[in-house]
Amino acid sequence: MALRLRIFSLHSIFIAAMLLSIPGYSAPVHKNIDSCANALRLSPPASQIKIPVPLRVRSWNIMKFDLPGADDELRRLSRNAHLILLQESLRGVAEKTNSSPYRYFSPGYARGSEATGVEIRSEFPANVICELQFVEPWLGTPKAVSVVRLAFHEAALLLINLHAINFTMTADDYGKQLTTLSPMLNAHSGPVIIAGDFNHWNPWRAATLKRWAQRMALVEVEFELDWRSRHVGSAVDTIFLRGLRAVARGAFPTTRSDHHPIAASLVLTTAADQGADSHAAGVSPAQVR
After folding, report:
1. pLDDT tens readout for residues 212-240
2. How far apart are the C-alpha atoms of 39 and 37, rounded to whole Å?
3. Is 264 exposed, middle or buried (0-12, 13-18, 19+ CB in 10 A)?
4. How far is CA 219 from CA 6, 103, 227, 238, 259, in A?
5. Are the C-beta atoms of 173 and 199 separated by less than 8 Å?
6. Does the reported pTM lie above 0.90?
Protein backbone atom coordinates (compact mmCIF):
# COMPACT_ATOMS: atom_id res chain seq x y z
CA MET A 1 0.00 0.00 0.00
CA ALA A 2 2.80 2.39 0.94
CA LEU A 3 4.56 1.61 -2.32
CA ARG A 4 1.40 2.32 -4.33
CA LEU A 5 0.91 5.63 -2.49
CA ARG A 6 4.51 6.58 -3.24
CA ILE A 7 4.08 5.75 -6.93
CA PHE A 8 0.84 7.74 -7.03
CA SER A 9 2.54 10.72 -5.34
CA LEU A 10 5.45 10.65 -7.79
CA HIS A 11 3.01 10.37 -10.68
CA SER A 12 1.06 13.38 -9.39
CA ILE A 13 4.22 15.45 -9.08
CA PHE A 14 5.20 14.47 -12.64
CA ILE A 15 1.76 15.46 -14.00
CA ALA A 16 1.87 18.79 -12.12
CA ALA A 17 5.31 19.54 -13.51
CA MET A 18 4.16 18.72 -17.04
CA LEU A 19 1.07 20.94 -16.72
CA LEU A 20 3.10 23.86 -15.42
CA SER A 21 5.40 23.58 -18.43
CA ILE A 22 2.48 24.18 -20.83
CA PRO A 23 2.19 27.86 -21.89
CA GLY A 24 -1.08 29.33 -20.68
CA TYR A 25 -1.69 26.70 -17.98
CA SER A 26 -2.83 28.29 -14.71
CA ALA A 27 -2.46 26.84 -11.24
CA PRO A 28 -5.46 27.14 -8.87
CA VAL A 29 -6.13 30.72 -7.77
CA HIS A 30 -6.21 31.53 -4.05
CA LYS A 31 -8.42 34.43 -2.96
CA ASN A 32 -7.44 34.96 0.69
CA ILE A 33 -4.27 35.29 2.76
CA ASP A 34 -4.59 32.01 4.69
CA SER A 35 -5.16 29.93 1.57
CA CYS A 36 -2.29 31.66 -0.18
CA ALA A 37 0.10 31.18 2.76
CA ASN A 38 -0.86 27.49 3.06
CA ALA A 39 -0.11 26.97 -0.63
CA LEU A 40 3.27 28.66 -0.23
CA ARG A 41 4.18 26.31 2.62
CA LEU A 42 3.99 23.34 0.26
CA SER A 43 7.21 22.42 -1.49
CA PRO A 44 7.37 23.75 -5.06
CA PRO A 45 7.55 21.25 -7.92
CA ALA A 46 10.97 20.45 -9.30
CA SER A 47 11.97 22.70 -12.17
CA GLN A 48 14.69 22.61 -14.79
CA ILE A 49 14.22 26.32 -15.54
CA LYS A 50 17.24 28.31 -14.41
CA ILE A 51 16.96 31.85 -13.11
CA PRO A 52 18.26 34.23 -15.80
CA VAL A 53 21.43 36.11 -14.92
CA PRO A 54 20.52 38.83 -14.51
CA LEU A 55 16.78 38.61 -13.90
CA ARG A 56 15.27 41.75 -15.46
CA VAL A 57 12.26 43.22 -13.65
CA ARG A 58 10.06 46.20 -14.57
CA SER A 59 7.35 47.87 -12.47
CA TRP A 60 4.97 50.62 -13.59
CA ASN A 61 1.75 52.27 -12.42
CA ILE A 62 0.30 52.72 -15.89
CA MET A 63 -2.64 54.91 -14.80
CA LYS A 64 -5.28 52.74 -16.50
CA PHE A 65 -3.80 53.41 -19.97
CA ASP A 66 -5.56 56.81 -19.82
CA LEU A 67 -2.81 58.80 -21.54
CA PRO A 68 -2.13 58.39 -25.28
CA GLY A 69 0.82 56.18 -26.12
CA ALA A 70 0.82 54.21 -22.87
CA ASP A 71 0.42 50.92 -24.75
CA ASP A 72 3.37 51.71 -27.03
CA GLU A 73 5.47 52.74 -24.02
CA LEU A 74 4.62 49.44 -22.35
CA ARG A 75 5.74 47.47 -25.39
CA ARG A 76 9.09 49.29 -25.33
CA LEU A 77 9.43 48.70 -21.59
CA SER A 78 8.70 45.00 -22.05
CA ARG A 79 11.61 44.36 -24.40
CA ASN A 80 14.16 42.02 -22.83
CA ALA A 81 12.19 41.96 -19.54
CA HIS A 82 11.56 38.69 -17.72
CA LEU A 83 9.01 40.03 -15.21
CA ILE A 84 6.68 43.02 -15.62
CA LEU A 85 4.54 44.29 -12.75
CA LEU A 86 1.76 46.75 -13.59
CA GLN A 87 -0.43 48.73 -11.21
CA GLU A 88 -3.68 50.42 -12.28
CA SER A 89 -3.87 48.14 -15.29
CA LEU A 90 -7.02 47.43 -17.31
CA ARG A 91 -7.83 43.81 -18.04
CA GLY A 92 -9.09 44.29 -21.61
CA VAL A 93 -6.54 46.84 -22.78
CA ALA A 94 -3.70 44.94 -21.14
CA GLU A 95 -4.61 41.76 -23.00
CA LYS A 96 -3.98 43.54 -26.31
CA THR A 97 -0.49 44.64 -25.25
CA ASN A 98 0.64 41.39 -23.67
CA SER A 99 3.51 39.52 -25.30
CA SER A 100 4.53 37.43 -22.27
CA PRO A 101 3.75 33.70 -22.18
CA TYR A 102 2.13 34.01 -18.74
CA ARG A 103 -0.11 36.76 -17.38
CA TYR A 104 -1.62 36.98 -13.90
CA PHE A 105 -4.25 39.69 -13.40
CA SER A 106 -5.70 40.48 -9.96
CA PRO A 107 -8.85 42.63 -10.27
CA GLY A 108 -9.57 45.62 -8.06
CA TYR A 109 -12.55 47.85 -8.71
CA ALA A 110 -14.61 48.01 -11.87
CA ARG A 111 -14.59 51.09 -14.10
CA GLY A 112 -17.79 50.66 -16.03
CA SER A 113 -17.60 47.22 -17.60
CA GLU A 114 -13.81 47.13 -17.36
CA ALA A 115 -11.87 45.62 -14.45
CA THR A 116 -8.87 47.52 -13.14
CA GLY A 117 -6.19 46.01 -10.95
CA VAL A 118 -2.61 44.82 -10.82
CA GLU A 119 -1.01 42.28 -13.10
CA ILE A 120 2.18 40.29 -13.44
CA ARG A 121 3.55 39.36 -16.85
CA SER A 122 6.09 36.60 -16.74
CA GLU A 123 8.31 34.53 -18.98
CA PHE A 124 7.86 31.68 -16.49
CA PRO A 125 4.83 29.72 -15.19
CA ALA A 126 3.58 30.16 -11.63
CA ASN A 127 2.74 27.19 -9.42
CA VAL A 128 1.01 29.36 -6.80
CA ILE A 129 -1.32 32.20 -7.81
CA CYS A 130 -3.08 34.51 -5.34
CA GLU A 131 -5.51 37.32 -6.18
CA LEU A 132 -6.03 39.45 -3.08
CA GLN A 133 -8.07 42.55 -2.33
CA PHE A 134 -7.88 45.24 0.32
CA VAL A 135 -10.30 48.12 0.86
CA GLU A 136 -9.52 51.84 0.77
CA PRO A 137 -10.74 52.97 4.23
CA TRP A 138 -12.16 56.32 3.03
CA LEU A 139 -13.43 55.40 -0.41
CA GLY A 140 -14.50 51.82 0.28
CA THR A 141 -13.07 50.76 -3.10
CA PRO A 142 -11.02 47.56 -3.51
CA LYS A 143 -7.25 47.67 -3.96
CA ALA A 144 -5.70 44.62 -5.61
CA VAL A 145 -2.53 42.69 -4.78
CA SER A 146 -1.10 39.92 -6.96
CA VAL A 147 1.09 37.14 -5.55
CA VAL A 148 2.74 34.35 -7.53
CA ARG A 149 5.43 31.78 -6.86
CA LEU A 150 7.75 30.80 -9.70
CA ALA A 151 9.69 27.53 -9.50
CA PHE A 152 13.29 27.63 -10.70
CA HIS A 153 16.06 25.05 -10.59
CA GLU A 154 17.98 27.10 -8.01
CA ALA A 155 15.06 28.14 -5.79
CA ALA A 156 11.40 29.12 -5.80
CA LEU A 157 10.82 32.87 -6.19
CA LEU A 158 7.98 34.72 -4.44
CA LEU A 159 6.77 37.74 -6.41
CA ILE A 160 4.31 40.29 -4.98
CA ASN A 161 2.83 43.17 -6.97
CA LEU A 162 1.49 45.72 -4.47
CA HIS A 163 -0.65 48.80 -4.96
CA ALA A 164 -0.92 50.02 -1.38
CA ILE A 165 -3.96 51.74 0.07
CA ASN A 166 -3.76 55.49 -0.23
CA PHE A 167 -6.35 57.63 1.58
CA THR A 168 -6.07 57.33 5.37
CA MET A 169 -5.85 59.81 8.23
CA THR A 170 -3.05 57.90 9.97
CA ALA A 171 -0.57 55.18 9.05
CA ASP A 172 -2.49 52.55 11.07
CA ASP A 173 -4.55 51.12 8.20
CA TYR A 174 -1.50 51.32 5.94
CA GLY A 175 0.50 49.30 8.46
CA LYS A 176 -2.32 46.74 8.75
CA GLN A 177 -2.23 46.11 5.02
CA LEU A 178 1.51 45.49 5.11
CA THR A 179 1.23 43.24 8.18
CA THR A 180 -1.48 41.22 6.45
CA LEU A 181 1.08 40.25 3.82
CA SER A 182 3.49 38.92 6.46
CA PRO A 183 2.13 35.32 6.63
CA MET A 184 2.96 34.81 2.95
CA LEU A 185 6.51 36.05 3.43
CA ASN A 186 6.91 33.89 6.53
CA ALA A 187 5.62 30.85 4.63
CA HIS A 188 8.23 31.25 1.87
CA SER A 189 11.89 30.49 2.49
CA GLY A 190 13.32 31.41 -0.91
CA PRO A 191 14.09 34.71 -2.65
CA VAL A 192 11.45 37.44 -2.68
CA ILE A 193 10.62 40.43 -4.88
CA ILE A 194 7.97 42.94 -3.77
CA ALA A 195 7.48 45.81 -6.18
CA GLY A 196 4.84 48.37 -7.00
CA ASP A 197 3.27 51.61 -5.86
CA PHE A 198 3.71 51.68 -2.08
CA ASN A 199 2.03 55.08 -1.56
CA HIS A 200 4.43 55.94 1.26
CA TRP A 201 4.16 59.65 0.55
CA ASN A 202 4.49 61.02 4.10
CA PRO A 203 7.01 60.40 6.91
CA TRP A 204 4.61 58.23 8.96
CA ARG A 205 3.88 55.89 6.10
CA ALA A 206 7.57 55.76 5.12
CA ALA A 207 8.54 54.87 8.70
CA THR A 208 5.83 52.20 8.89
CA LEU A 209 7.02 50.65 5.62
CA LYS A 210 10.65 50.71 6.76
CA ARG A 211 9.85 48.96 10.07
CA TRP A 212 7.77 46.28 8.36
CA ALA A 213 10.46 45.66 5.71
CA GLN A 214 13.08 45.24 8.43
CA ARG A 215 10.90 42.69 10.25
CA MET A 216 10.49 40.75 7.00
CA ALA A 217 14.25 40.92 6.22
CA LEU A 218 13.53 42.90 3.05
CA VAL A 219 16.07 45.30 1.55
CA GLU A 220 14.94 48.23 -0.58
CA VAL A 221 16.63 48.81 -3.90
CA GLU A 222 18.39 52.17 -3.77
CA PHE A 223 18.21 54.51 -6.75
CA GLU A 224 21.21 56.84 -6.45
CA LEU A 225 20.51 58.42 -9.85
CA ASP A 226 16.86 58.77 -8.96
CA TRP A 227 14.57 59.65 -11.87
CA ARG A 228 11.48 58.21 -10.23
CA SER A 229 8.35 60.38 -10.28
CA ARG A 230 7.40 62.21 -7.08
CA HIS A 231 4.01 62.25 -5.36
CA VAL A 232 3.61 64.73 -2.50
CA GLY A 233 7.39 65.02 -2.74
CA SER A 234 8.11 61.31 -2.33
CA ALA A 235 9.10 58.53 -4.72
CA VAL A 236 6.38 55.95 -4.02
CA ASP A 237 7.39 53.38 -6.66
CA THR A 238 10.03 51.00 -5.37
CA ILE A 239 11.31 47.43 -5.12
CA PHE A 240 12.13 45.34 -2.04
CA LEU A 241 14.28 42.20 -2.16
CA ARG A 242 15.16 39.20 -0.03
CA GLY A 243 17.77 36.74 -1.19
CA LEU A 244 18.50 38.85 -4.29
CA ARG A 245 20.60 41.90 -5.05
CA ALA A 246 20.41 44.57 -7.71
CA VAL A 247 23.33 44.80 -10.12
CA ALA A 248 21.66 47.62 -12.07
CA ARG A 249 18.55 49.74 -11.62
CA GLY A 250 16.96 52.89 -12.93
CA ALA A 251 13.79 54.76 -13.84
CA PHE A 252 12.42 55.68 -17.26
CA PRO A 253 10.98 59.21 -17.41
CA THR A 254 7.73 59.21 -19.39
CA THR A 255 4.73 61.37 -20.19
CA ARG A 256 2.45 58.31 -20.65
CA SER A 257 1.48 58.09 -16.96
CA ASP A 258 1.77 60.10 -13.77
CA HIS A 259 4.30 57.47 -12.62
CA HIS A 260 7.66 56.71 -14.22
CA PRO A 261 8.47 53.01 -14.79
CA ILE A 262 11.25 51.55 -12.66
CA ALA A 263 13.56 48.67 -13.49
CA ALA A 264 16.15 46.46 -11.85
CA SER A 265 18.48 43.69 -12.95
CA LEU A 266 18.82 41.11 -10.18
CA VAL A 267 21.00 38.17 -9.18
CA LEU A 268 20.76 35.72 -6.31
CA THR A 269 22.78 36.69 -3.25
CA THR A 270 25.74 34.63 -2.11
CA ALA A 271 27.47 34.24 1.22
CA ALA A 272 29.87 37.01 0.21
CA ASP A 273 26.96 39.43 -0.09
CA GLN A 274 25.82 38.98 3.51
CA GLY A 275 26.53 42.07 5.58
CA ALA A 276 27.79 43.95 2.54
CA ASP A 277 26.18 46.63 0.45
CA SER A 278 23.90 44.64 -1.88
CA HIS A 279 23.36 47.44 -4.39
CA ALA A 280 25.33 48.41 -7.45
CA ALA A 281 25.94 52.04 -8.23
CA GLY A 282 23.08 53.85 -9.92
CA VAL A 283 23.00 53.54 -13.68
CA SER A 284 21.14 55.13 -16.54
CA PRO A 285 17.95 53.55 -17.91
CA ALA A 286 19.81 52.45 -21.04
CA GLN A 287 22.19 50.38 -18.91
CA VAL A 288 19.32 48.63 -17.12
CA ARG A 289 17.90 47.49 -20.45
Report:
1. 999 999 999 998 777 687 766 577 889 99
2. 5
3. buried
4. 41, 26, 20, 11, 22
5. no
6. no
